[in-house]
From TrEMBL:
NCBIfam families (UniProt xref): pabB
Gene Ontology MF terms in the entry: 4-amino-4-deoxychorismate synthase activity
Transmembrane helix found in the keyword field: no
Segments forming domain Anthranilate synthase component I N-terminal: 13-133
Gene name of this polypeptide: pabB
Enzyme class: transferase
Protein's UniProt name: aminodeoxychorismate synthase
UniProt keyword list: Transferase
Entry's Gene Ontology BP terms: folic acid-containing compound biosynthetic process; L-tryptophan biosynthetic process
Domain Chorismate-utilising enzyme C-terminal, residue spans: 180-434
EC number annotated for this UniProt entry: 2.6.1.85
Length: 445
C-alpha cells in the first residue's frame, strides 16, 4: 500500500490563519477543535478543491448514497500515513438531520423552507492538519495527487494570506419562529404523548433567524472566539452560503475499528460568580431528572451501536461526566464498541443516524413527533459534520450550536430533551441559553 507524503509547515494554534488562504476556493472546509482556547480537541483539518462533490438526491435511498460514498473512497485508493494523522485523503462534508428521512420512513409535515441538500460531501486528496498535542502543522498529500499540485499547495500555504474579509452584519435582530405560547403548546403535546406511552423523551427545538449580508467566514471567526468548542466547523456552500458549527458534541468516532459516541444530555448555565458556577455544576451532577434523561439516551445508543458492533463489545466506560463550556455546563457519557468484521463506518452511520441525544426515545417515534410539532425542517441542525478517510478512520459531530447562512438569512436553533416532568418555562429558557452567546455575538458584529 502506498503512503501519503507530508510537508511540514509552521505550527498555527488557530486554523483561521491557514484557512484564510483557501476561504474562497471551491469546496473549502474546516473541521476545527476550537484552539487555542478550547482544550479537548487534538486536530484541525482543512482542505479545498475537491476532486468531486456529492449530494444526496431528493428521492435517493440512504443506503444507495452511502454506497456511492464508499465507491468514491475505493476509487481514490487506500493509503497509509507515515505517523499518527487522522486523515489520509477521503470524504469531508455534512449530513443534515433530514438525511434521516433517507434511512427511515418518516412523515413530511414540517416545511422544507431552507432547501438545503440533505447530505453533501467533497472527495479530497490533500489536507492541512494541525496537531495541537504535538504542536505541528503539515500538509498531507494522498499518493494520487500530482507533484505540480503538491508544489502549488506548498507555495500557497508558505506565504501569509492577506485576503481582506468582508464584514458580516445582521440586518435586524435574530427572532424566534415560535412564540412562548406556541412553545408551551408543543411541550404540552409532547407530555401528552409521553403520558399515553408513545415515548419517554422527545428533543424539541425552536429556530431563530434574521436577514444578513457579508461574509459568513467573518461571522465564524467571531463565533469561534466567543464560543470555542472541540467539534467546530465551517463549510462553504456553492451558493455563497455556509455551514457554521460551534458544537461541543461528538456523534461517532471510528479509529482502528474502535467506535466511540459521547452523548450530551443535561445542561445548566454558567454562573456569574465562581460560587454560583460551582453550585450550578453541582446541581446538574446531582439532578435525578438530568441523569435519567442521560441514561435513556445511553441505552438508546447502546442499541444503535449494537446494530453494527461485534456482539458483546458495547460498553459504557463513562457515565454522567461534567463538561464545562463558555456558556453552559453539560452532563456527558461515553458508549464504545468494536465494529463487526463485515461492517464499516458507513454501516455505523446507517444504523445510528441521527444521534439519539437530539431525537429522543424511542428514536423513530420521537422523530415522528418532532416532524409533527416543529413547523419547519431542521436541515443542518442536529445533523453531523464529519470526515471519513480511505483507511476507514472517521470522526463526526452532532451539529448543535450551529448556524446556516443561505439565501441572505442566517438561521440558528436551540432545543432540549422533554420528559414527563419537564417544566415548559425552564425548557424554553434552556433553548435560549444554549444559543445566547451565538445570537449576542452576531448582534454585536
Amino acid at each position: 500500500m502506498l503512503t501519503c507524503s507530508v510537508h511540514p509547515l509552521p505550527y498555527r494554534a488557530n486554523p483561521a490563519e491557514y484557512f484564510a488562504a483557501i476561504r474562497h476556493a471551491p469546496g473549502a472546509v474546516l473541521l476545527d477543535s476550537g484552539r487555542p482556547i478550547a482544550d479537548r480537541g487534538r486536530y484541525d483539518l482543512l482542505s479545498a478543491w475537491p476532486l468531486e462533490q456529492l449530494a444526496v438526491l431528493p428521492s435517493e435511498q440512504g443506503s444507495a448514497f452511502l454506497q456511492r460514498l464508499r465507491d468514491k473512497l475505493t476509487q481514490l485508493g487506500e493509503a497509509n500515513v507515515p505517523f499518527d494523522l487522522p486523515f489520509a485523503g477521503g470524504l469531508i462534508g455534512y449530513l443534515s438531520y433530514d438525511f434521516g428521512r433517507h434511512l427511515e420512513h418518516l412523515p413530511s409535515q414540517a416545511q422544507d423552507d431552507l432547501q438545503l441538500p440533505d447530505a453533501r460531501f467533497g472527495l479530497y486528496d490533500w489536507a492541512l492538519i494541525s496537531d495541537h498535542q504535538l504542536s505541528t502543522s503539515q500538509l498531507v498529500f494522498h499518493p494520487s495527487l500530482i507533484d505540480s499540485e503538491r508544489q502549488r499547495l506548498i507555495a500557497l500555504f508558505s506565504q501569509p494570506a492577506v485576503a481582506a474579509v468582508e464584514p458580516f452584519r445582521l440586518k435586524a435582530p435574530m427572532q424566534a419562529d415560535l412564540s412562548a405560547d406556541e412553545y408551551r403548546s408543543a411541550l404540552e403535546r409532547i407530555q401528552h404523548y409521553i403520558q399515553a406511552g408513545d415515548c419517554y423523551q422527545v428533543n424539541f427545538a425552536q429556530r431563530f433567524r434574521a436577514q444578513c449580508h457579508g461574509d459568513p467566514w467573518a461571522a465564524y471567526v467571531a463565533l469561534r472566539a466567543a464560543c470555542p468548542t472541540p467539534f467546530s466547523g465551517f463549510q462553504s456552500l456553492p451558493d455563497g452560503g455556509a455551514v457554521l458549527s460551534l458544537s461541543p458534541e461528538r456523534f461517532v468516532k471510528v479509529s482502528e475499528r474502535h467506535v466511540e459516541t459521547r452523548p450530551i444530555k443535561g445542561t445548566r448555565p454558567r454562573g456569574l460568580t465562581a460560587a454560583e458556577d460551582a453550585a450550578n455544576a453541582a446541581e446538574l451532577l446531582a439532578s435525578p431528572k438530568d441523569r435519567a434523561e442521560n441514561l435513556m439516551i445511553v441505552d438508546l445508543l447502546r442499541n444503535d451501536l449494537g446494530r453494527t458492533c461485534r456482539i458483546g463489545s458495547v460498553r459504557v466506560p463513562e457515565l454522567f461526566s461534567l463538561e464545562s463550556y463558555p456558556n453552559v455546563h453539560h452532563l456527558v457519557s461515553s458508549v464504545t464498541g468494536e465494529l463487526a468484521e463485515d461492517r464499516d463506518a458507513l454501516d455505523l452511520i446507517a444504523g445510528s443516524f441521527p444521534g439519539g441525544s437530539i431525537t429522543g426515545a424511542p428514536k423513530i417515534r420521537a422523530m415522528q413527533i418532532i416532524d409533527e410539532l416543529e413547523p419547519t425542517r431542521r436541515g443542518l441542525y442536529c445533523g453531523s459534520l464529519l470526515y471519513l478517510d480511505v483507511r476507514g478512520e472517521m470522526d463526526s459531530s452532532i451539529a448543535i450550536r450551529s448556524l446556516l447562512v443561505k439565501d441572505g438569512q442566517v438561521c440558528c436553533w436551540g432545543g432540549g430533551g422533554i420528559v414527563a416532568d419537564s417544566q415548559w418555562q425552564a425548557e424554553y429558557q434552556e433553548s435560549i441559553t444554549k444559543v445566547k452567546v451565538l445570537l449576542e455575538t452576531l448582534q454585536n458584529l
